[in-house]
Amino acid sequence: MVATHAEGPATDRQGIPHYRMFIGGEWVDTDEQYDVINPATEELVATAAKGGTSHADAAVAAAKRAFESGEWRNTPPLERAAVIDRVIAALTSRMDEFTEIGSRECGFPLRLSQAICVGFPLLHMQHYADLTRRYEWERPGPVAGQVLSAGLVRREPLGVCVGIVPWNFPLVLTVWKAIPALAAGNSVVVKVDEKTPIAALEVAQMLRDAGVPDGTFNVITGDGETVGAHLVAHPDVRKVSFTGSTAVGREVMRNAADTIKQVTLELGGKGPNIVLEDADLDAAVDGAAYAFLLHAGQACESGTRLLLPSSLHDEFVRRLVERLKTLKIGNPLDPATDIGPVMGPDQHKRILGYIELGQQEGATLVHGGGVPSGPGFEKGYWVEPTVFTDVRNDMCIAREEIFGPVLSVLRYDSVDEAIEIANDTEYGLSAGVWSQDVPRALEVAKQLQAGSVWINDWHNISANLPFGGFKQSGNGRELGPDALDEFTEQKAVTVDLSGRVDRRAYGLVLGTPPSA
Ligand code: NAD
To answer: Which Gene3D superfamilies does the record cross-reference, listed alphabetically (predicted)?
Structure first.
């Protein structure tokens, strides 16, 4: 799959690609290793060095040295954007390889892998490069009431920024953490998830080849509770951008508090998908399936609570189940596959546990619920697309993030009730409304507590729009027109042009000078 080379991320360890970490411009290995396992086949895809806290320290030290040298942060923004352009060209030339990495390492079906492991990273890097070119790095700001003063607001990099990335979208989320931080002139340490380290390490080589100075971009592996937590608490780290579960997000916020770090958190969700009575049913049925099944439901923004008006409920569920029967679950490398595996034994157990819990809670299982069997399913981690009806919003399957292909269907009798159910959650990442009356859908959208609301659509994450959560789905925004704000400090500079001492101000402290 991936070529191994002495001067790149992967070497050969017993005939398998072995990935090293990238620290201070060097490839760093360890004796201990992680196994990277294909979730569809349980085959060993690669091994990876297992980082510890000493590697986290080395990466932060290298990043700090690089930042203090000034080489990257003093590189003009236009040149930093040109470096991103070169990475875009490098990734474009290796599209097929990265599509396959996404399928083997993460279980993405090929079509989806092409879009999410290559297309999105390319589009988003392009957005960050464009933004870097037109960002207001410095702007004049008049000083209130003082004609003979000049003011200047500068946007300056923060220093060492840490990105902590989960396994579900490894390259997209590495791009969201690393590229705007680098574009703004920071140094970066990315901690990848041990299950999915490959794409970020390959991109480290691309960034180096594109001209990012050594130490400015580092990638380490390591367990979250030790290495991740160590990075978050590290006194030389100025910012942590974390994507993962809400439970770990709370811990990140606590651990960052002692050193008053800036923290961006992109956390879990329990997206309510409201179908209004006047929805186009064919579109809404497909949309409901798409909303909860992308990447076998392992997407934070999934639509996992489907809210149906009582009048449409039975017909809609019937159509949805018929549609789900047409989907092909199986080998992600088969271009005909629609739904791939879930990420590994822990995810598998967790999802099946929720399916059992849903039945115990009194929900009705109307589709799926099991593990597919037969040829092609002897190995790997598989869960059938699963639909529960008769779900109440106080059940665990309606409140907790399952992170698998499981949909909870709830009934409502008035639009106000639908909005109330939708907002009755501690999450607030995504929501959706289906209606042929767009102004009416917009009125509903305004009342939903979520960072992204899709009308007659789902998963429409656009580079030009901010993405992030309300409530316990997170803090801060990624992408969008303000993406670089998250990785810069504002500095206000004033210049007194009057050539005189300001007696009114100075006099407050110094009194009347003897000469006056
Ligand atoms: P997780 O929270 O267990 O782990 C995420 C990352 O954090 C991993 O790299 C892990 O090693 C690290 N980590 C674990 N404990 C840590 C600690 N104490 N300190 C610092 N780092 C630590 O999440 P996961 O199960 O790997 O990923 C799935 C979760 O991510 C889901 O809840 C999903 O909703 C969320 N997610 C959110 C978004 C978003 O943009 N909002 C996007 C994708 C995934």
So the answer is: Aldehyde Dehydrogenase, Chain A, domain 1, Aldehyde Dehydrogenase, Chain A, domain 2
- Rounded CA separation 389/369 (Å): 12
What is the rounded CA–CA span in Å between residue 400 and residue 394?
10
Q: Which residue's alpha carbon is nearest to atom 23 within ligand 1?
A: 244
State if residue 429 touches ligand 1 by the CB under 6 angstroms criterion: yes
Asked whether the beta carbons of 343 and 39 are under 8 A apart, the reply is yes
All domains in the chain, ordered by first residue: 62-267+470-492 (3.40.605.10), 272-455 (3.40.309.10)
User: Do 291 and 302 meet the contact criterion of CB atoms below 8 Å apart?
Assistant: yes
What are the residues facing 139 on neighbouring strands?
153
Nearest to 208 by CA among 199, 196, 200, 217: 217
Please say if 225 is a catalytic residue: no
Task: Kindly report, residue by residue over 447-480, the tens digit of the pLDDT.
Answer: 999 999 999 999 999 999 999 999 999 999 999 9
Kindly give the distance from the C-alpha atom of residue 224 to the centroid of ligand 1, in angstroms, as a whole number.
Answer: 9
* The overall pTM is greater than 0.90: yes
DSSP 213: P
Position in ligand 1 atom list of the atom nearest CA 246: 32
Distance separating alpha carbons of residues 91 and 382, to the nearest angstrom: 30
As given in the structure block, the two tokens for residue 69 are 């040298």
Whether 300 is catalytic is yes
Give the separation between CA 125 and CA 162, rounded to whole angstroms.
18
Residues in a beta bridge with 272: 305
pLDDT computed for residue 9 by the predictor: 84
Rounded CA-CA distance 303/432 in Å is 8
